[in-house]
TrEMBL record, chains A, D:
It comes from Phyllobacterium myrsinacearum. GO terms for molecular function: transmembrane transporter activity. The lineage of its organism: Bacteria, Pseudomonadati, Pseudomonadota, Alphaproteobacteria, Hyphomicrobiales. GO terms for cellular component: plasma membrane. It is a multi-pass membrane protein. The chain crosses the membrane at residues 26-46, 58-79, 91-109, 121-144, 151-169, 181-205, 238-257, 290-309. This is Inositol transport system permease protein. Pfam families: BPD_transp_2. It comes from the Bacteria. Its main location: membrane. It is found in: Cell membrane. Coiled coil: none annotated. CDD domains: TM_PBP1_transp_AraH_like. Keywords: Cell inner membrane, Cell membrane, Membrane, Transmembrane, Transmembrane helix, Transport.
Automatic annotation (TrEMBL), chain C:
It is a peripheral membrane protein. InterPro entries: AAA+_ATPase, ABC_carbohydrate_import_ATPase, ABC_transporter-like_ATP-bd, ABC_transporter-like_CS, P-loop_NTPase. One of its GO terms (cellular component) is plasma membrane. One of its GO terms (molecular function) is ATP hydrolysis activity. This is Ribose/galactose/methyl galactoside import ATP-binding protein. It comes from Phyllobacterium myrsinacearum. Belongs to the ABC transporter superfamily. GO terms for biological process: monosaccharide transmembrane transport. Keywords: ATP-binding, Cell inner membrane, Cell membrane, Membrane, Nucleotide-binding, Repeat, Sugar transport, Translocase, Transport. It catalyses: D-galactose(out) + ATP + H2O = D-galactose(in) + ADP + phosphate + H(+). Its main location: membrane. It comes from the Bacteria. It is found in: Cell inner membrane; Cell membrane.
Length: 341, 289, 513, 341
């Protein structure tokens, strides 16, 4: 028998001196701080103002990306499973239109459903979340059951949902929404919604079985299946959540604008994916955190506000935006690599 | 008759009114069907749509050009196929050398920004600081309207106006609101907001209100006279907008197309003017558009 | 002064190979990964025309050293001498051009390409127009296979091949480089005895051509059969080099683990209980058919057979990975329908798959996450929340029991050595307290000490009444551990042997019937 | 020990009984034929016309997707390496603008470079291809050298290149192009360019080392690297080719429209990716063929023409388009799976 030998000392762990790794968000947080400081310095030089010490600006930085952020929380989970969701921007548009049509005030001259005005907020809320859920479930079911690539399934949904948004009122905007409905879009409420959603799914990903399974599927779907995970059912769940969050984002968008338009949310999916990836989520699956995504979204927000603050010419903004997205990820990849070796 | 229609964009509020005007009008006519396509702001897509119409042998084609510089190629295609062609809403670059069986029903885009800015100038008594919200930079109307603003403040009466900021909010209300908030947070001071469209102007109003700014201390101007804009004007928030008779243009273009299809003669150029809307004449427009 | 790889390659191409005592030697190599000192002042010398075995426990640093020689890792310190000249290998291409080829521990093939394309990648024959000459390439492959006596279709896609056949492709590919040094990192871990014998033929013929071969294995008998010399590593340190004729098996084990291991297969005889799993006429269309057997509580049923005989497929079907097309499965007498691994787990089954990279490890996740994933199906979860403390404690105990060599449970599994990855997977399934345990090549790539430990654990589980099915291509393992052996050949069961009557010859007879 | 067994004759190759696989394009070709036949039948029922027996329509079917097709040929190669190129649509816009500015006729009132009018076609051609090449090399270098995900590198390029297109003339279109330049866009020339490009890269992928490396990297980058392939250098090549083809597509687009506009090519990248994936290219890399991509592009073309032909309401077109994209891939995946078992 050999077991008596089991006491043989384990290999000297040379690791202890390094201790635990820093969570990967630290690296991206440093990028965020770096960008903010650059703006701060440039601000003093060129505008003679502080970038950061301005209550209003700190609010708008997050406010303007809160809708993107809400989507990005769902998209992050999808990406962790190794998938992608291109449909979220269009689902925003579709749910905005449909939810808003149940939120019109009777004072408005041309409601979509003349019989259904002045409904309590809960009605458009449920309608919007329901539409988002439906879109998500369709995405998830297509991907899980037919095994087509998520890129294609959600690309199809992206095209179709945008079509639904335009078809719903033949392109006319849906306006004259009730104050109750608009409330969720006023002040910092969108920020609150964003952060609450982020918190819930941060917990869900880190401390629940749902989260563990999500990472496992992204890391190795075959191994996950053999380990007893019902991969199909789980994927439907994840895409459904992403859909519901896109629905929520649609409601917030409509409430913020106090109108719904069929073009709402165009290219939001790309910003959301960018926020997730800048925040350290890996497009090959298995890696990513909501905290990172929140920071990623804030980086996008800082960037936009910074442009206006520094009065960057509109024609240069886009050029620079592309460069910053790439640079943020490059710096992050580089820092992570350096820490590793 | 079967008419093919290629619209530059479906998710544009103004063009939607135009499109619906066209379709509503066609419904009242016997035997007229419209096949309306969305070019999604893509010149090439629009060109392909025209070619698809030609392949399907429609009786006439109506085009709302994505890019008015690209109309020469389209005119050529239609001529070669012997199918009548009508341009609507935007003035084609080849307006003066349109072939036979082609016409256009449009408004002169130069007017909209000019009317808007002149009114602002008047309200500010020729003196003050303005911020400009531009539409999508690749869009012709955005460029034209912005240029109009510059042209007007270069005139003698409005020399006292200065542009302190000029940025794009991509035609969008939320981006307009965000842009305004960003300006406010930078401590920008201004007396008027001149926006390329009503949506961004409304966004600006929302942001200004959220920041607690008194709406009578600032002049807000947009273009389009959409329902939302008229409501905002009725509420005393929006000061200036410009009405363009979308339904009228739609109807006019269908009429022209039908006549050309029957081989009748039509006038090659039909201008439908822009009209200034202020709180004074607001009631006249509330039932339109 | 180090010679540049390109200079060396040019010298080699010219045929003017410098004479030196050693074909290849490394001195004072040190390589550190975050948290792990994989190699510490290691030296190693390879002579021409010899087979030099590398021995050591899992995680001793064998693969790391070989990857340095293959140009994949750059050492932190130390020097590599090729034919006496110091050289810095900066890329796999450098190594290949300088006559060092390697068969990697993990398969490294392009699944969607043909066998021929895999072998000749980067060296495709071209026709007069500069296009790849596929006909010639297939011919070259056929020639190579002829020479090596391998029966594979050069035009087959690699993804259609079994693991064993893929391994043979890797071997053929490495040989095709006609290198001076050939490194083989556990080439036989996926092979059955027949292919192993075949491989040894190839090795002997290469050795006689003056090629130096580094051979890594955990199989002791292979060492005595094929190696001329061997070196032992332990915990990233070089322990010593000896001629393989000089030593006994126990000596080597002692050098490897620093202690003595007396009994290799500690199978205890335990009372056999009732039938737990009963399989009747199980078939999977075009793969296997008519498989029937029972496994009782406390029994270890070994499944033997040649590569491709369908053993793994039977296990996958029982576990619901590829549901059967006909036949029935009963557990404790009750017929059950198993359409997915999820259902199999609910019936108390556990399945350690043969391909740890494809269907086992969650490579980018850490040890803890890898170990806990299966047990979370029904335990350690309250209201959807994972009981972090309890599960960590359970995993810690398990990893210590299995002697997993890892800095901590937060280490990514991809950073563990192959054998330690295997241990993590075994831990994953033992945590579920299975009633029926299916093991497919459970000790593949595992060192002697750990192997004995795993055997002891399996035996222990059987003693507690677990029904065990163990597929193994290692004859001593099947013979030593099984109460009964089922032998398969080309998708059919060809016979059963009791422990007492089973011998290697009888098994082989049935396996090729 | 066991060596005496080595003489046992080697088993017959087990694969032969399965026979050669049909090339995967066959499956997608059937999808194309299926869709065309459905339109044909619906055409007779609802429009009283033949869909296919119409010379003009057959031309426009391919003509309208030839630009997408040119891009898709490059994108297919990128996807085979396991990457993705989101920038191609924007690169089309950027090169269209810049190339066109060197192709203006002196008769035009507002040339961008008044000194540089009536240049021979070769000048804008070289400029356009050069700009595309530059964009592609930047993409490739970012991906290969900094190891950031291709999705992010090309997303950054997508945003920046669009910015350049708008900035170049402050958004104004570039018109009044020479007849020489426009020639490439007239008649069926775009189709010819597309098919020539497709043929060249079909050969390159199947019969050259370039092709073998491309597949090898996509199938298993680790294996490619240990086989001695310089993965970095090869990736740069592949992205450079995709960039050059996007540049070519930009030139053709401008020539077709006889003008260049900064919004040209928006969302073309998605259509190109859809064409590749519908044609059987796998987004996980290692699998794909140009012939499939050509068929995929034609499926898109048939779909668009069919909508107009059947007078499908534009509101429904998008909804249906999304469904068809998904359905085409579902059918293909399903057929491939069935054949395998
Ligand atoms: N890329 C890596 N990053 C971090 N640690 C690594 C890496 N590769 C190997 N290690 C560590 O280095 C040590 C030596 O690993 P190596 O793979 O060389 O072992 P081995 O002797 O080949 O073991 P086995 O017999 O199990 O294959 C192990 O502790 C392993 O965890
Ligand atoms: N995915 C697959 N596609 C095609 N053929 C397969 C596949 N998986 C297995 N096979 C074939 O099925 C047969 C049985 O394979 P299986 O892996 O079950 O055999 P085994 O006895 O376990 O041998 P091994 O030691 O290779 O695992 C082999 O001929 C193999 O080539
Ligand atoms: Mg190893
Ligand atoms: Mg097996």
């Amino acid at each position: 028998m050999t077991s008596e030998q089991a006491t043989a000392k384990a290999p000297a762990p040379t690791t202890s001196k390094r201790g635990r790794r820093l969570p990967p968000e630290v690296s991206i947080l440093l990028v965020l701080i770096g960008i903010a400081l650059i703006y701060e310095i440039l601000g003093w030089i060129f505008v003679g103002q502080s970038f950061l010490m301005n209550q209003q600006r700190l609010t708008i930085i997050i406010l303007q990306v809160s809708v993107i952020g809400i989507i990005a929380v769902g998209v992050t989970q999808v990406i962790i499973t190794g998938g992608i969701d291109l449909s979220s921007g269009s689902v925003v548009g579709m749910t905005a239109m449909i939810a808003a049509s149940f939120a019109q005030a009777s004072t408005w001259a041309r409601p979509v459903y003349p019989g259904l005005t002045d409904l309590p907020f809960i009605v458009p809320l449920i309608v919007g979340l329901g539409i988002g859920l439906l879109a998500g479930v369709v995405n998830g079911a297509l991907i899980a059951q037919t095994k087509i690539p998520p890129f294609i399934a959600t690309l199809g949904m992206m095209v179709s949902a945008r079509g639904v948004a335009k078809w719903y009122t033949k392109g006319s905007p849906v306006s004259g929404l009730t104050d109750q409905f608009n409330f969720i879009g006023t002040g910092i409420w969108p920020v609150v919604v964003f952060l609450v959603v982020a918190f819930i799914f941060h917990i869900a990903l880190r401390y629940t079985r749902y989260g563990k399974f999500t990472y496992a599927i992204g890391a190795n779907v075959q191994a996950a299946r053999v380990s007893g995970i019902n991969v199909e059912r789980h994927l439907i769940k994840v895409y459904a959540i992403a859909g519901v969050l896109a629905g929520l984002a649609g409601i917030v968008t409509a409430a913020r604008a106090q109108t719904a338009q069929s073009g709402m949310g165009v290219t939001y999916e790309l910003d959301a994916i960018a926020a997730a990836v800048i925040g350290g989520t890996s497009l090959t699956g298995g890696v990513g955190r909501i905290t990172g995504t929140v920071i990623g979204a804030i980086i996008l927000g800082v960037m936009i506000s910074g442009f206006t603050f520094l009065r960057v010419d509109a024609y240069y903004q886009e050029i620079i935006k592309g460069v910053i997205i790439v640079a943020a990820v490059v710096v992050d990849v580089y820092r992570q690599k350096k820490r590793k070796v | 008759a079967n008419i093919g229609v290629s619209m530059a964009q479906f998710d544009d509020n103004f063009l939607t009114v135009l499109r619906n005007g066209m379709q509503d009008y066609a419904k009242t006519l016997d035997g007229v069907t419209l096949q309306v396509e969305d070019a999604q702001n893509d010149v090439a897509k629009q060109q392909s749509q025209i070619q698809n119409f030609i392949a399907s042998k429609v009786d006439a084609i109506i085009v709302n050009p994505v890019d008015t510089d690209a109309t020469a190629a389209m005119s050529k295609l239609a001529t070669a196929a012997g199918i009548p062609l009508v341009y609507v809403n935007r003035e084609p670059v080849n307006v003066n050398e349109l072939p036979a069986k082609q016409a256009f029903v449009a408004s002169n885009e130069v007017e909209s920004g000019t009317l808007e800015t002149k009114e602002v100038c008047k309200l500010l008594k020729g003196k003050g600081k303005i911020v400009v919200m531009m539409g999508e930079l690749s869009n012709q109307a955005a460029r034209q309207r912005t240029k109009d603003i510059h042209d007007v403040i270069a005139t003698d009466e409005c020399k006292g106006l200065t542009i302190v900021e000029e940025q794009t909010a991509n035609w969008s209300r939320t981006q307009g609101a965000d842009l305004m908030t960003n300006w406010l947070s930078a401590g920008l001071e201004f007396d008027a907001v001149i926006s390329n469209n009503d949506e961004m102007a409304i966004g600006a109003i929302q942001a200004l209100k959220a920041a607690g700014r008194k709406m009578d201390s600032v002049v807000i101007a947009g273009v389009d006279a959409t329902q939302d804009a008229l409501a905002a004007m009725a509420a005393g928030d929006l000061d200036v907008t410009v009405f363009q008779n979308a339904a009228g243009q739609g109807k006019g273009s269908v009429d022209a197309a039908l006549k050309l299809a029957k081989g009748e003669k039509v006038e090659a150029k039909v201008y439908i003017p822009f009209e200034l809307v202020t709180p004074d004449n607001l009631s006249k427009y509330q039932s339109k558009n | 002064m180090a010679v540049s790889p390109t200079t060396m390659a040019a010298v080699r191409a010219s045929g003017a190979v410098p004479k030196a005592e050693y074909l290849l030697n490394v001195e004072g190599i040190r390589k550190e990964f975050p948290g792990v000192l994989a190699l510490d002042d290691v030296s190693f010398r390879l002579k021409r025309g010899t087979v030099h075995a590398l021995m050591g426990e899992n995680g001793a640093g064998k693969s790391t050293l070989m990857k340095i020689l293959a140009g994949i890792y750059v050492p932190d310190q130390g020097e590599v001498f090729l034919k006496g000249l110091s050289i810095r290998l900066k890329s796999p291409l450098d190594a290949l051009e300088n006559g060092i080829a390697m068969i990697h521990q993990e398969l490294n093939l392009m699944p969607f390409m043909t066998v021929a394309e895999n072998i000749w990648i980067r060296r495709e024959p071209k026709n007069m127009f500069g296009f790849v000459d596929h006909g010639k390439m297939f011919e070259m492959t056929a020639d190579l296979f002829n020479r090596l006596n391998i029966a594979l279709d050069p035009e087959a896609q690699v993804r259609d091949l079994s693991v064993a056949n893929r391994q043979m492709v890797e071997i053929a590919k490495a040989v095709s480089y006609e290198s001076d040094v050939l490194i083989m990192d556990e080439p036989t871990s996926a092979l059955t005895e027949r292919e192993v014998a075949h491989l040894f033929e190839i090795i002997r013929s290469l050795r006689s051509q003056g090629i130096g071969i580094v051979y890594i294995t955990h199989k002791m008998n292979e060492l005595f059969e094929i190696a001329d010399e061997f070196s032992v590593f332990r915990d990233g340190r070089y322990i010593g080099t000896h001629a393989s004729t000089d030593v006994t098996r126990d000596d080597i084990i002692k050098m490897m683990v620093g202690r003595e291991i007396t009994q290799m297969f500690p199978k205890e005889t335990v009372p056999i209980g009732d039938v737990v799993l009963s399989v009747k006429d199980l078939s999977l269309k075009n793969v296997f058919s008519g498989v029937s057997f029972d496994v009782r509580a406390g029994e270890i049923l070994g499944i033997a057979g040649l590569v491709g005989s369908g053993r793994s497929n039977v296990a996958e079907t029982i576990f619901g990975v590829t549901p059967a097309t006909s036949g029935s499965i009963a557990i404790n007498g009750k017929p059950v329908a198993i359409a997915s691994p999820n259902q199999a787990i609910q019936h108390g089954m556990a399945f350690i798959t043969e391909d740890r990279k494809e269907t086992g490890c969650l490579l980018i996740l850490d040890v803890l996450e890898n170990m806990q994933i299966a047990v979370l199906q029904d335990r350690f979860v309250k209201f959807g929340f994972v009981a972090e403390k309890e599960i960590s404690a359970a995993c810690k105990v398990m990893s210590e029991k299995l002697r997993v060599k890892t800095p901590n449970l937060q280490e990514r599994v991809e950073n563990l050595s192959g054998g330690n990855q295997q241990k993590v997977l075994i831990g994953r399934w033992l945590l579920t307290n299975p009633k029926i345990l299916i093991l497919d090549e459970p000790t593949r790539g595992i060192d002697v000490g750990a192997k004995a430990e795993i055997h002891r654990l399996v035996s222990e589980l059987a003693k507690q009444g677990v029904a065990v099915i163990m597929i193994s291509s290692e004859m001593p393992e099947v013979l030593g551990m099984s109460d009964r052996i089922m032998v398969m050949h080309e998708g059919r069961v060809t016979g059963f042997l009791d422990r007492e009557e089973a011998t290697q010859v009888k098994v082989m007879e049935l396996a090729s019937k």
